[in-house]
Automatic annotation (TrEMBL):
It comes from Paractinoplanes pyxinae. InterPro entries: DNA_helicase_UvrD/REP (IPR000212), P-loop_NTPase (IPR027417), UvrD-like_ATP-bd (IPR014016), UvrD-like_helicase_C (IPR027785). Keywords: ATP-binding, Helicase, Hydrolase, Nucleotide-binding. Gene3D superfamilies: P-loop containing nucleotide triphosphate hydrolases. This is UvrD-helicase domain-containing protein.
Length: 944
């Protein structure tokens, strides 16, 4: 069997060989125009050459994405583009070609005659690694049937860039089935978040363009997305597949040119999206045609020769004109020619005194409009609205549509809900010029009937790919059924509905949280099956109102500092605070509302977040996301499912506690008997995760704090913390901390092995706020942060900090100053590498704002921390060695105390209660003391 290195060398040789041929093809193509007979032919050739060069791929692209070996030993390489040698032998076949299909369709159950499928991981044309699926082995390994292969996992784990990437390398069999479904149908693809609906829809376009190339060109295809941001995010995929001229638009782009920016009441917006508006507009438009009632006859002149028409006569001509197929304007032209014909026949001798030229009369009887002018007049006239509304609308609805017109048409500002109406009118007035043989509608689940009409009006054939997720359907037109959407997309073609079942984007830990919303958000929908684990559990950050923005921004900055794309998904009510915080901290950020996305910090509204994804997301204030939409739980589901790796939830509601569990379901505050909506009752679930940069941060499940340091014993509504081993009972105390290779590790015997636990590292909270020279004030002021000052003794301490119940604001603009020295912002502090004898392996953010929790009762009382520190058997195994070990032990002791506090928080969570600010403060004060004079406190404790 060949070694990996041998395989790589052989494959690279082939890649280089193919690349040489590709460059030869390129040179030949580039030379072609110069050989043309004349300038016109050369220009045509050049265009053709450009298109063919696109199809060839760039010189830096990998020539192939994979290869397949059939059972007879024949090999075929698959890539983005076909590459041939001098004899026109195919070296690499393009992925859309029928010959490539088996690369995607082969499965363990039906190998399609393949023995092996190899997927390459490349940088440019350099192969970095490859992964093989050996079908016979796969079939044998039943356990692996649903397991994603390595190549797929690699792709899913890569950093996101703010632009969607193609998935040619790793299209899955079920996805490929939809990609190559026949053109002549209306294909509906339902699938949960991250199941690849958008990817499938885009690759389907490319596949159709290749396989129906005789009848379908790029100009025949339209892709419609929900927002400009989404369109920007997805628009590079098709060019990367060699399909450059496919039209990609967002739904807000179908309208005549008007000024946008009017905001409207949701009730009005909803009404304007209603399909009944189509009837109203049509009636209103044709209500403007005809001779006004009460006018039996009219007179006009044709070149000075008077003509008289009776009203009946004109109305008959109007009726005849309206029967001809065509737009309002075309019918008007017919009307005009009929009128002119009659006029010519009937015109008498020239006579003065008839003032109205025939064209003016025609304009009065059948006015010509622009869509905007017509709609402005209609909305501005209650009478016209009432007439057009007929029986189909209530008086209230008519009143909602009525509005004062702007002074001039050029000053009229239009709302988003007006746009489909303008578009509909434009279609009535002039017809729709741009029609497409295939239309892809992404995120279709939210579109209003009038928006869907805009799409349908552009279909020449009824062939469409409609993708979306009912469970993510929000907004004023949130749907529970696909039929409610499809009734507005009429098609003569068969309608086929398919479902994508595997979730590729969202890691298991995150989806386990998000899917708990589904029973409330979309009861009939089956959750997708996630295919991979993420690097971390979701992190819940408990904050108070003042601390929210800081915590969210800090979390985002931390991710951004690792080069990740991170979205702060923020409901409108907190947007300002977040933007201010970003400004104060001088953080460069991008706004989805301006269609900017990329690495670093992005600020995104929950609605804008649809269809997008990021390496990390910070979801701000779940309850307000829920409040932002009638289907707020779905909106939160959307927000929670945007991450490919890390999720932070930042909110004022504690993620635990009997009085207010993390209210992912929103609504009324829960009582003790209310089932916990996110399953935090479930003892197997981590109540929260302590924030950490570790690859897998320590969660509340990771060790057994109660066994390690003590336990909470509820008594009369107050749970008391009882440290185990108090009074020096080392023998029976399980280890609380241990010194191992200069690291402080924490855990009990039942905890994870030290290698895992040592990620826990040192708890260095609180210390950063230590006063320079007044140890009595040594106490934490802001437990949201966890950095250690580079030099603790240089820090100033706000004089009134001990009286504050809210975290001290450490921002530039509101930084407290003590003795003229401003308190430095948290971001200025570098955690130390070394504390005493201990190497700092990790800093962990303290669960924030416990000191400011407002949950009244029941409460947890935390006993004095002193006895807790005695259980340091790894350091001080018996009293005689106390003195010698005192400095190290003292430091370890104080740090242990901090750990114990965190354990206390954890336990508080586990007993589903919260710590009273006063109690908590007592603990923190005590730790402050210990930290202020560690040796003394340590010695005391060990002696005591
Ligand atoms: N076969 C695959 N190989 C590699 N990556 C894939 C594959 N299928 C999907 N993905 C990736 O999964 C992520 C989610 O895909 P996509 O955005 O198409 O999902 P979606 O179903 O449209 O999600 P949403 O409902 O949130 O809009 C993308 O990063 C996409 O590239």
């Amino acid at each position: 069997m060949e070694s990996v290195a041998e395989v790589l060398a052989a494959e690279q040789k082939y890649f280089d060989h193919v690349s040489d041929h590709r460059e030869r093809m390129r040179r030949r193509l580039l030379e072609a125009p110069t050989a043309a007979a004349n300038a016109g032919a050369a220009a045509r050739l050049r265009k053709d050459v450009e298109a063919r060069l696109e199809r060839l791929g760039g010189p830096d692209e990998a020539v192939a994405v994979g290869r397949m070996d059939d059972e007879d030993g024949d090999v075929l390489y698959v890539g983005h583009h076909t590459i041939t040698d001098d004899d026109s032998e195919v070296l690499v076949v393009n992925w859309q070609a029928p010959a490539a299909a088996r690369y995607y369709t082969a499965t363990h159950a039906d190998t399609a005659g393949l023995a092996l499928k190899r997927t390459f991981e490349c940088r440019g044309n350099l192969i970095e690694s490859y992964s093989d699926v050996v079908f016979r082995q796969l079939a044998a390994a039943v356990a692996e049937l649903e397991a994603p292969d390595d190549a797929l996992l690699d792709d899913l784990n890569r950093d996101r860039t703010g632009q969607m990437q193609d998935i040619v390398r790793t299209i899955q069999a079920a996805q490929f089935d939809l990609i190559r479904a026949p053109l002549e149908q209306l294909l509906v693809v339902q699938g949960g978040p991250g199941t690849g609906k958008t990817a499938v829809a885009l690759h389907r376009v490319s596949w159709l363009l290749f396989n129906y190339r005789d009848t379908l060109s790029a100009a025949d295809v339209l892709i419609v997305g929900p927002t400009p941001t989404f369109t920007r995010y997805t628009r590079t995929v098709l060019p990367s597949l060699g399909d450059i001229s496919v039209v990609q638009r967002d739904i807000g782009q179908f309208h005549p040119p008007v000024r946008r920016g009017r905001t409207e009441d949701p009730e009005v917006v909803r009404l304007k999206g209603d399909g009944r508006l189509a009837g109203l507009l049509r009636r209103a438009l044709y209500d403007r045609v005809g001779v006004p009632a009460g006018q039996p006859a009219v007179e006009a002149h044709l070149d000075g020769r008077p003509v008289v028409f009776t009203a009946d006569e004109i109305n008959q001509i109007v009726a005849r004109s309206r029967q001809t197929p065509g737009s309002f304007t075309q019918q008007r032209q017919i009307f005009r020619s009929l009128m002119v014909n009659v006029g010519m026949d009937r015109a008498r001798e020239r006579r003065l005194g008839v003032r109205t030229p025939l064209d003016q009369l025609i304009e009065r009887i059948w006015p010509s409009f622009t869509a905007a002018a017509f709609l402005r007049e209609l909305f501005g006239s209650r009478d016209r609205l009432i007439a057009a509304a007929g029986e189909a609308f209530t008086a209230r609805e008519v009143a909602l549509l009525h509005r004062r017109a702007g002074e001039r048409i050029t000053e009229e500002i239009w709302s988003e809900a007006d746009l489909p109406l303008l578009d509909f009118l434009e279609g009535l007035l002039h017809g729709i010029d741009e029609r497409y043989a295939h239309i892809v509608v992404d995120e279709a689940q939210d579109l209003s009937p009038m928006q869907l009409r805009s799409v349908a009006a552009r279909s020449s054939s009824g062939s469409m790919t409609v993708v979306g997720d009912i469970a993510q359907s929000t907004g004023l037109w949130a749907r529970d059924e696909w039929d409610d959407i499809l009734e507005h997309l009429p098609s003569q073609l068969p309608q086929v509905t398919a479902e994508l079942r595997y979730g590729y984007r969202v890691p298991r830990q995150v989806f386990e949280l998000a899917e708990r919303l589904l029973p409330v958000a979309a009861p009939g929908i089956t959750a997708p099956q996630v295919v991979r684990d993420g690097p971390a559990d979701p992190v819940f950050r408990l904050v108070d109102d003042d601390g929210r923005a800081a915590v969210a921004v800090e979390a985002a900055m931390a991710h951004a500092s690792h080069g990740r794309s991170v979205a702060i998904i923020c409901p409108a009510v907190h947007r300002w605070a977040i933007e201010s915080e970003l400004a104060v901290r001088d953080v460069a950020w991008r706004a989805a509302s301006r269609s900017e996305l990329g690495q670093g910090v992005n600020l995104v509204s929950p609605h804008e977040a649809k269809g997008l994804e990021f390496d990390a997301t910070v979801v701000v204030e779940p309850k307000d996301i829920i409040a932002e939409d009638e289907r707020g739980h779905r909106l939160l589901y959307v927000a929670l499912t945007r991450t490919t790796r890390y999720l932070h939830v930042v909110g004022v509601l504690p993620p635990f506690g009997a009085t207010e569990p993390l209210s992912l379901t929103g609504g009324e505050p829960s009582t003790g008997s209310t089932p916990d909506p996110v399953g935090l009752d479930d003892p197997d679930r981590a109540a929260f995760t302590w924030e950490s940069d570790a690859a897998s941060p320590v969660t509340s499940r990771d060790f057994e704090p109660a066994e390690a340091v003590g336990e909470f014993r509820p008594s009369g509504g107050v749970a008391e913390f009882q440290p185990v081993g108090a009074g020096g009972d080392f023998e029976h105390a399980p280890p609380v901390s241990d010194l191992e290779q200069d690291r402080l590790v924490v855990g009990s015997e039942r905890a994870r092995p030290a290698s895992d636990v040592d990620r826990f590292g040192l708890m260095v909270g609180y210390e950063r706020m230590r006063p320079a020279d007044n140890h009595e004030q040594s106490r934490p002021a802001d437990t949201r942060e966890q950095s250690w000052p580079a030099d603790a003794h240089e820090q100033s301490w706000p004089a009134d900090a001990h009286e504050r119940s809210e975290p001290v604001d450490t921002h530039e603009h509101a930084r407290p100053a003590v003795g003229g020295e401003p308190v430095r912002p948290v971001s200025d502090f570098e955690p130390p590498r070394q504390i005493g004898d201990f190497e700092v392996t990790r800093t962990i953010t303290v669960v924030p704002a416990v000191g400011t929790a407002t949950v009244p009762s029941p409460r947890v009382e935390v006993a004095e921390p002193a006895p807790m520190a005695v259980a340091v058997p790894g350091v001080v195994s018996d009293p005689p060695t106390v003195k010698a070990a005192a400095p190290a032990a003292a430091r370890a002791g104080s740090l242990t105390a901090q750990i114990i506090e965190l354990v206390a928080v954890e336990l508080a969570g586990q007993v589903r209660e919260n710590v009273q600010p006063a109690q908590w403060q007592a603990v923190l004060d005590r730790v402050g003391e210990l930290l202020a004079s560690p040796s003394e406190a340590g010695a005391d404790r060990h002696q005591g």
